[in-house]
Amino acid sequence: MLTNLAHLDSLRVxxxxxxxxxxxxxxxxDEPHVEVVxxxxxxxxxxxxxxxxxxxxxxAGGYGQGAFNADDIARxxxxxxxxxxxxxxxxxxxAARQLLRGLCFLQTxxxxxxxxxxxxxxxxxxxxxxLNPRALPVEDPDxxxxxxxxxxARTIWALGEGAAAFGGDxxxxxxxxxxxxxxxxxxxxxxxxxxxxxxxPVDDTATPAWLIADGADLTGEALLGLCEYTRSNAGDDDARxxxxxxxxxxxxxxxxxPWTWPFGAVLPWGLSRxxxxxxxxxxxxxxxxxxxxxxxxxxRDAALADAASFTPYLLVGGGPDNLRAGLPGARDALTLDGVxxxxxxxxxxxxxxxxxxxxxRPALRTLAGVAGSWFFGNNPAGAPMYDPDTGVTCDGxxxxxxxxxxxxxxxxxxxxxxxLAMLALDAEPEVAAVARIARPVARTDGAELHxxxxxxxxxxxxxxxxxxxxxxxxxxxxxxxPAPAVVSVNDPAGQELEHYTTTAGRVRVLVAAGGFTTVxxxxx
Length: 524
Known about the structure:
The protein has about 525 residues and is α+β, with helices and mostly antiparallel strands. Helix content is about 35%, strand content about 20%.
């Protein structure tokens, strides 16, 4: 198994939050302790880690931002919830429960239902449990529970998955989570869906105005929780309506063609139709789940375009950069920020697997393995970013002067997304085997064919070709001996056109117009 919770366990801490107006959680009088996670973990001289908060330390023993934050508490709760459901581990069940209780303390539940903060979430919390709604540097919104936010979206993600998991296990806690999810969805209806059906011109394109904090990325994370919740609470028509309306906005962010930027990507930011970033890229996977839950064909098509057209282009072109931009209709994009994070790599893995499951496109599973190989060395630094022996995921890869340099701190966000990727790979052993083929051999950017060659231990080898041509092309691929390789030729929607086994040697393969081809030789 690749998943190792040890490092995330070390970032968890129990606190007793002080009495705070408008804030409480499940059975707080009977269980005064809740759990949270430290935001950052700095590597020390001895190779260990020191947990720290965000912002400058202050005289009161806190930080300008805080020690713990709702974003990371919510996503850590998702990790433990998924691990519990995958393995049955009672320790993960207990961790998920305590983190969800800690998260719910951050949600604002004022006595007056007309309070506009109702259902929103305070982002930061100090080491002693005090809330810090006005952080330095200043957050948007300020105070942090005054409007729609990333942390509201991630709270919906965690509450949705938590309510689904605890239903039938702890009905009282599940009912509490459903009530808190209802408060969060009330905030979304009031703050976001009041704009439902409104469009704004962005880069000369009609763009949905009803995305959470203008983010298809953030809205996608809320959709992940709503999909899990709706599967197990099919009678909640209000939640389903929110799900369908938010998904409509996210699907409308699909842009480009198989031959032109951004190649069918679901763009992340509702204020740009030219920029894509790897951070928070789970929207395509969420749309695939929306299709599985609701049968939404628009969501399916957007997920497929991102998975089968954009993502092969991204994988061959160097991976999940923090910012790429290109003019609509261009044949390529410019990397404006080449930093890469575990968040971006995990988002590709999960989105590809979700789309493969929902649409029956097996070749997307091979692409998920290529995306997962980022954690084992297929990245600009050529170095492993995840250590299965410790559960540490490094914070990212900086690229000063174009060189890949590993940033070896290991805070909550990178650790969480590394573990979410490992949970996905552990559930798919063949995909995990592809992910270990992670040593880049060559990248070739031809005028019409872009190629990535990877090798791995035990003779594993993989070639991924992505076509920008408008008609079918052929390419010669070296298959090192002696094991055979599987060839998969796919169109821009991930539909498999050819699938066969070839012997070692130099082989000629087809690459469909705007599509991708994989030649995979798994380790013996």
